[in-house]
Amino acid sequence: MPPGRLAGMDRSGLADLTWVTVGTPLPSGPMRFGVTDRGVAAATYTADGLGGLPVGGPPCSDGRRAELVTERVTAYFTARRRTLDLPLDWRLSSGPHRAVLQCLQTEVGWGRTITYGELAARSGVFEELTEPGAAARTVGQMMGANPLSLLVPCHRVVAADGLGGFGAGWREGPEVKRWLLTLEGVLQPTLDWDGPEV
Fold first, then answer.
1. Is residue 26, in this structure, part of any structural domain at all?
2. What is the H or E stretch that residue 98 is in?
3. Whether 103 is catalytic
Protein backbone atom coordinates (compact mmCIF):
# COMPACT_ATOMS: atom_id res chain seq x y z
CA MET A 1 0.00 0.00 0.00
CA PRO A 2 1.29 3.48 -0.79
CA PRO A 3 1.65 6.07 1.95
CA GLY A 4 -1.10 8.22 3.39
CA ARG A 5 -4.17 6.12 2.55
CA LEU A 6 -5.55 5.08 5.96
CA ALA A 7 -7.49 8.26 6.69
CA GLY A 8 -10.65 7.52 8.61
CA MET A 9 -9.69 3.95 9.49
CA ASP A 10 -9.78 2.67 13.06
CA ARG A 11 -6.29 2.72 14.50
CA SER A 12 -7.40 2.10 18.09
CA GLY A 13 -5.71 -0.65 19.97
CA LEU A 14 -2.63 -0.67 17.78
CA ALA A 15 -0.24 0.47 20.49
CA ASP A 16 1.39 -2.95 20.22
CA LEU A 17 2.14 -2.55 16.50
CA THR A 18 5.75 -3.43 15.67
CA TRP A 19 7.41 -3.81 12.28
CA VAL A 20 9.18 -6.49 10.31
CA THR A 21 11.09 -5.51 7.15
CA VAL A 22 11.48 -8.20 4.50
CA GLY A 23 13.71 -7.87 1.45
CA THR A 24 11.93 -8.46 -1.86
CA PRO A 25 12.87 -8.52 -5.55
CA LEU A 26 10.15 -5.94 -6.26
CA PRO A 27 11.03 -2.70 -8.09
CA SER A 28 9.99 -0.88 -4.89
CA GLY A 29 12.44 -2.78 -2.66
CA PRO A 30 11.72 -4.24 0.77
CA MET A 31 8.22 -4.53 2.24
CA ARG A 32 7.26 -3.58 5.78
CA PHE A 33 4.77 -5.59 7.85
CA GLY A 34 3.14 -4.22 11.00
CA VAL A 35 2.42 -7.04 13.44
CA THR A 36 0.43 -7.26 16.65
CA ASP A 37 -0.38 -10.08 19.03
CA ARG A 38 -3.37 -10.87 16.75
CA GLY A 39 -1.42 -11.08 13.49
CA VAL A 40 -0.31 -8.84 10.63
CA ALA A 41 -2.25 -5.55 10.77
CA ALA A 42 -0.47 -3.59 8.05
CA ALA A 43 1.73 -4.19 5.04
CA THR A 44 3.28 -1.64 2.75
CA TYR A 45 5.54 -1.60 -0.29
CA THR A 46 7.11 1.74 0.71
CA ALA A 47 9.14 3.11 3.61
CA ASP A 48 6.87 6.14 3.92
CA GLY A 49 4.24 6.53 6.62
CA LEU A 50 1.15 4.36 6.36
CA GLY A 51 -1.79 6.68 6.93
CA GLY A 52 -0.27 8.19 10.05
CA LEU A 53 1.31 4.98 11.31
CA PRO A 54 5.10 5.24 11.53
CA VAL A 55 6.49 2.52 9.27
CA GLY A 56 9.70 0.88 10.33
CA GLY A 57 9.57 1.40 14.05
CA PRO A 58 9.55 0.04 16.59
CA PRO A 59 10.96 -3.20 15.21
CA CYS A 60 9.30 -6.48 16.14
CA SER A 61 11.07 -8.00 19.13
CA ASP A 62 9.15 -11.29 18.97
CA GLY A 63 11.60 -13.47 17.05
CA ARG A 64 8.98 -16.14 16.33
CA ARG A 65 6.57 -13.66 14.70
CA ALA A 66 9.32 -11.92 12.74
CA GLU A 67 10.68 -15.24 11.51
CA LEU A 68 7.25 -16.48 10.43
CA VAL A 69 6.52 -13.32 8.42
CA THR A 70 9.99 -13.32 6.85
CA GLU A 71 9.89 -17.02 5.96
CA ARG A 72 6.42 -16.92 4.39
CA VAL A 73 6.98 -13.72 2.41
CA THR A 74 10.38 -14.89 1.16
CA ALA A 75 8.88 -18.21 0.06
CA TYR A 76 6.10 -16.37 -1.82
CA PHE A 77 8.60 -14.18 -3.70
CA THR A 78 10.60 -17.23 -4.76
CA ALA A 79 7.40 -19.03 -5.94
CA ARG A 80 7.86 -21.74 -3.32
CA ARG A 81 4.62 -20.70 -1.60
CA ARG A 82 1.32 -19.65 -3.21
CA THR A 83 -0.48 -18.62 -0.03
CA LEU A 84 1.00 -16.68 2.83
CA ASP A 85 -1.32 -18.14 5.51
CA LEU A 86 -0.38 -15.54 8.09
CA PRO A 87 -2.85 -14.56 10.82
CA LEU A 88 -4.41 -11.17 10.04
CA ASP A 89 -5.42 -8.36 12.38
CA TRP A 90 -8.26 -6.58 10.53
CA ARG A 91 -8.46 -3.48 12.79
CA LEU A 92 -7.40 -1.06 10.03
CA SER A 93 -10.47 -1.83 7.94
CA SER A 94 -14.15 -1.96 8.80
CA GLY A 95 -17.65 -2.09 7.32
CA PRO A 96 -17.97 -2.42 3.53
CA HIS A 97 -14.21 -1.93 3.07
CA ARG A 98 -13.45 -4.94 5.24
CA ALA A 99 -16.18 -6.99 3.54
CA VAL A 100 -14.69 -6.31 0.10
CA LEU A 101 -11.14 -7.07 1.28
CA GLN A 102 -12.22 -10.31 2.94
CA CYS A 103 -14.12 -11.34 -0.20
CA LEU A 104 -10.98 -10.72 -2.27
CA GLN A 105 -8.75 -12.60 0.16
CA THR A 106 -10.93 -15.70 0.31
CA GLU A 107 -12.09 -15.91 -3.32
CA VAL A 108 -9.25 -14.79 -5.59
CA GLY A 109 -6.22 -17.04 -5.25
CA TRP A 110 -2.79 -17.30 -6.84
CA GLY A 111 -2.83 -17.01 -10.63
CA ARG A 112 -6.34 -15.56 -10.81
CA THR A 113 -7.65 -12.05 -11.31
CA ILE A 114 -10.97 -10.33 -10.88
CA THR A 115 -12.20 -7.01 -12.26
CA TYR A 116 -13.18 -4.13 -10.01
CA GLY A 117 -16.80 -4.55 -11.10
CA GLU A 118 -16.80 -8.32 -10.54
CA LEU A 119 -15.38 -7.88 -7.04
CA ALA A 120 -18.02 -5.25 -6.30
CA ALA A 121 -20.78 -7.63 -7.37
CA ARG A 122 -19.31 -10.66 -5.61
CA SER A 123 -18.85 -8.79 -2.32
CA GLY A 124 -22.57 -7.98 -2.15
CA VAL A 125 -22.11 -4.60 -0.48
CA PHE A 126 -23.07 -2.29 -3.35
CA GLU A 127 -26.70 -3.15 -4.12
CA GLU A 128 -27.81 0.44 -3.44
CA LEU A 129 -25.40 2.01 -5.95
CA THR A 130 -27.27 2.42 -9.23
CA GLU A 131 -24.96 4.76 -11.14
CA PRO A 132 -23.11 2.75 -13.81
CA GLY A 133 -19.52 2.12 -12.78
CA ALA A 134 -19.91 3.58 -9.29
CA ALA A 135 -19.36 0.28 -7.50
CA ALA A 136 -16.27 -0.52 -9.58
CA ARG A 137 -14.81 2.93 -8.89
CA THR A 138 -15.49 2.51 -5.18
CA VAL A 139 -13.73 -0.86 -5.18
CA GLY A 140 -10.76 0.81 -6.90
CA GLN A 141 -10.58 3.36 -4.08
CA MET A 142 -10.84 0.58 -1.53
CA MET A 143 -7.95 -1.27 -3.13
CA GLY A 144 -5.87 1.91 -2.89
CA ALA A 145 -6.64 1.96 0.86
CA ASN A 146 -5.86 -1.72 1.48
CA PRO A 147 -3.87 -1.82 4.74
CA LEU A 148 -2.81 -5.43 4.10
CA SER A 149 -1.13 -5.24 0.71
CA LEU A 150 0.07 -8.56 -0.69
CA LEU A 151 -1.66 -10.47 2.14
CA VAL A 152 -5.01 -9.28 0.80
CA PRO A 153 -4.04 -9.42 -2.89
CA CYS A 154 -5.28 -6.13 -4.36
CA HIS A 155 -2.74 -6.66 -7.18
CA ARG A 156 -5.15 -9.33 -8.50
CA VAL A 157 -7.91 -6.76 -9.06
CA VAL A 158 -7.73 -5.46 -12.63
CA ALA A 159 -9.68 -3.18 -14.93
CA ALA A 160 -12.17 -4.65 -17.39
CA ASP A 161 -9.96 -3.38 -20.22
CA GLY A 162 -6.45 -4.00 -18.88
CA LEU A 163 -4.17 -3.96 -15.90
CA GLY A 164 -5.79 -1.07 -14.07
CA GLY A 165 -4.14 1.10 -11.48
CA PHE A 166 -2.16 0.22 -8.40
CA GLY A 167 -1.24 2.48 -5.55
CA ALA A 168 -3.32 5.56 -6.41
CA GLY A 169 -0.61 7.43 -8.29
CA TRP A 170 2.33 5.76 -6.56
CA ARG A 171 5.12 5.93 -9.14
CA GLU A 172 6.29 2.30 -8.89
CA GLY A 173 2.76 0.93 -8.44
CA PRO A 174 2.12 -0.33 -11.99
CA GLU A 175 5.55 -1.99 -12.15
CA VAL A 176 4.96 -3.73 -8.82
CA LYS A 177 1.53 -4.94 -9.94
CA ARG A 178 2.96 -6.23 -13.22
CA TRP A 179 5.81 -8.00 -11.35
CA LEU A 180 3.40 -9.73 -8.94
CA LEU A 181 1.05 -10.83 -11.73
CA THR A 182 4.02 -12.18 -13.68
CA LEU A 183 5.22 -14.11 -10.63
CA GLU A 184 1.74 -15.65 -10.32
CA GLY A 185 1.62 -16.59 -14.01
CA VAL A 186 -1.17 -14.19 -14.98
CA LEU A 187 1.19 -12.25 -17.26
CA GLN A 188 3.93 -13.74 -19.41
CA PRO A 189 7.48 -12.81 -18.41
CA THR A 190 9.13 -10.18 -20.58
CA LEU A 191 12.79 -10.25 -21.59
CA ASP A 192 13.71 -8.11 -18.57
CA TRP A 193 11.86 -10.33 -16.04
CA ASP A 194 14.05 -10.68 -12.97
CA GLY A 195 11.91 -13.06 -10.95
CA PRO A 196 12.09 -16.79 -10.30
CA GLU A 197 11.20 -19.48 -12.82
CA VAL A 198 7.44 -19.95 -12.58
1. no
2. helix 95-107
3. no
Render pLDDT for 55-88 as a digit per residue (tens, 0 to 9).
Answer: 667 888 899 999 999 999 999 999 999 999 999 9
Query: Domain for residue 130, yes or no?
Result: yes
The pLDDT of residue 87: 97
CB atoms within 10 A of CB 183: 23
Q: Is residue 58 part of a domain?
A: no
The single residue of 20, 31, 66, 154 carrying the catalytic annotation is 154
Query: What pLDDT does residue 8 have?
Result: 41
Inside any domain, residue 168: yes
Give me the domain span that covers residue 140.
95-183
Query: How many Å from the N-terminal Cα to the C-terminal Cα in the chain?
Result: 25
* Structural domains counted in the chain: 1
Residue type, 150: L
Q: Could you tell me if 150 and 144 are in contact, meaning their C-beta atoms sit under 8 angstroms apart?
A: no
Pairing mode, strands 31-35 and 114-115:
unpaired
User: In whole angstroms, what is the distance from residue 137 CA to residue 120 CA?
Assistant: 9
Which residues have a Cβ under 8 Å from the Cβ of 71 and sit 6 or more positions away? none
The total number of residues shown for the chain amounts to 198
Evaluate whether 116 touches 163 at the Cβ level (below 8 Å): no
pLDDT by residue (tens digit) across 90-114? 999 999 999 999 999 999 999 999 9
CATH number at residue 130: 1.10.10.10
Dihedral sign, CA of 87, 92, 95, 100? negative
97 touches 145 (CB < 8 A): yes
